[in-house]
Amino acid sequence: MLCQQVLMEYVDILQTQIETLEKAGTANVSSSAIPYQINNGFTFQNRSDKVSQSVQISDELKNERNTWRLLFELRELSIQKKDDLTILSTAQLPVTNQSTEMDAIAALENRHQIFALQKTILKWLEHVATESVVATKEKRQMHLRTLKQLKRKTSGQSFAMDPDGPLREGDNYLDDDDVEDELDLLKSVWQLLRAGKTHEAMDLCIQLGQPWRVASLSGGEISGACDNESGISRWGNPYRMLWKKMCWQFAESPAPGNLHNTNSLEAREYDSIIYAALSGHAQVILESPHCNSWEDHCWALIKAVIAFQEDDAIFHLLNLKAQTTSLILENSPDHMQLYKAFLAQVRPVVGRFCTNIDQLFEELAASANEVVRAQAQHPHRRIQAKLVTSRIDNIVQDILAALLGPLSGPFTWDLELNDNIPADTVSPQLLRFGAHFVLFMKTTGESFDEEAGARLLKAYIRHLVKHAQYKLVALYAGQLPEEGRGEIYSQCLITIPRHEERQQCLAAIAPFCPPALFAQVTRAAAETLMASKTDARRIGALSLLTFDEKHRVEAVYQANILARQFIAEDKQVRLKALFAQLPEDSLSIIHQQSSKEDKMTADTIREHLAWKALIGATEAYESWRASLPTKRTAACFSDEETIVKEVLFRASVATHAITDVLEFEHGWLMEVPTVRSKCLPFLVFHAHRVQLETVAFLEGLEFYPSEAKEALQAPLAQNAMNLADIVADEHYLVYRAFSQDQTRHLLHLLQQSAMYLL
């Protein structure tokens, strides 16, 4: 019952969206009304394009709603009558000579498998037609204008005002407005009959002053009688078959040649299909220009088939009764002969559909009506035809999966986001339906080709990814097997450009992944992004690894690897942005997670600290450079003193920061000599530049005495000379990072420093 509730709630959601679209009249309606409705992403040049797109989406949603409602009705039938529907032919009906006609019809509905299925289809088709009913509600007397006009005439000519008068004498004397009112009434009666609202059609006829038409419409009521305290109570029409015969003949009779008014001719056409529907004359309805849809033709055939089986069941009952008595009115030879002749007349038209519903849908697909034939090829109508006979595998594999085109090779979970594939031409609404259909059938235990189902889910998920519906991607991919889930989540994460959206996607994915799979997904996505040619994407990849604190070691490790790559590419400027991606508490979290660090974790942390030291040294050096005044701005000693203090402070910070790298514990990145050769020589040169350029700055002071300047310059020059000891230290092995040219250049710089000390 839960599945039934889900179906009805989803049908209601679709109906709400349809009404919203039709009310708004544009395609700009928010998709929030349907949780899984995705806009196509199209842009429109003018309002007509928007309206056209709105109509297209509305039609697709109606088709989808109708399919889900049919599934609901079929499941309802299966739930309620599964154990009772055991009879396959009229001769097996549990009726006796004591049964009534209503008993025979009830036995058909409750015991006959195919009849119950056909009644369910009819109920569904009539429910679909309900939304098209626009019955006139104005209360008026029909032909009142014509009557007034005729009363004013003095020619002495007589005119017939009975219902059949215009058919005998023509419509020349009828008022045009009265003819139009007649047409409106018949249109409304037809729409109500088409929607299964026969009693409402009768009420409308009474309301509009045609009670006689009610009598002509109600002749098909099943007859019966029972004894009560006041005597015998009877109901229905004992001459029902005679009434049906007359309706049949009236439906197929051509319009009289004396009808000239266009509205009169159209009203006669509606009269024909009304009585054709009442008598089961499907051929008249199929040929009518007013029944020009697949649903109308299907309804006409199903209704005729049901009526034929009801008549056959009643005829079977009458034959049973005739074996015991001939006193019953319906058992008269003439009536029985009429019954037999009518059944013989109808059987060639619809008899073949009584046991083969598939044939009915096949003939609709081959209809002589071009519109019906085209509509029968629509995926939803093909699905509906197969759904009736529970051909779930055919629906999934031959209809829905076929829309995606043939496979070019073995099935994979690659979303092919950068390619144009046949699935791009399928409407988003149909893709969504396919995914929902597969998931629903999987939930209810139906069997179908798993690969075809996976293709449908993948196609819809691909659409969601391309339209940045990342939370929905997490939801739908969460229903896939673990292998597909992991690959799709990784591909989705790769497409997300913004950090905030990526974090939201990770939060949505996490509930659908066990820890091992989540780690695999984030690692695979991060590695793919790090292989990108865009630095921002490579740096942003780290945010995938920092989402879960359990992966913080991996995040730091990958940051170290990427830092090495940036150095190799001479992109040292990217290091600050790279390590800014790592939360400040990363090292403390790593220490908390591992009571005893393994060698890999220890090496990862040590390298991370080495990179942080390098970044700190670079920032300190840049701060020193920024503190050097570009021109003399001091107007007095106090101003100059302030500037000197700032420059000396920045020089001291830069010197210590660079020294921390050069004298890093056990040597800075000793295991990566290529990185050392890229970084350490320039740090030494930066350190020397800090000292000598600061000395030069002090030399140019205006308000400082010479002795004071020399006192400030001497330590700086000595610091420059001390670089030789640091470079030559065998513990840190900085000198090994220098090339011969760099060594010669360093010696030249040291000579300059020595000159300041002389």
UniProtKB/TrEMBL annotation:
Q: Which organism is it from?
A: Thraustotheca clavata
Functional description taken from the UniProt entry? Functions as a component of the nuclear pore complex (NPC).
Q: How does it assemble?
A: Part of the nuclear pore complex (NPC).
Q: Which GO terms describe its molecular function?
A: structural constituent of nuclear pore
Instruction: Write down the Pfam families for this protein, in alphabetical order.
Output: Nup84_Nup100
Q: Which GO terms describe its cellular component?
A: nuclear membrane; nuclear pore outer ring
| Identification of the protein by name | Nuclear pore complex protein
Q: Does the keyword Membrane apply?
A: yes
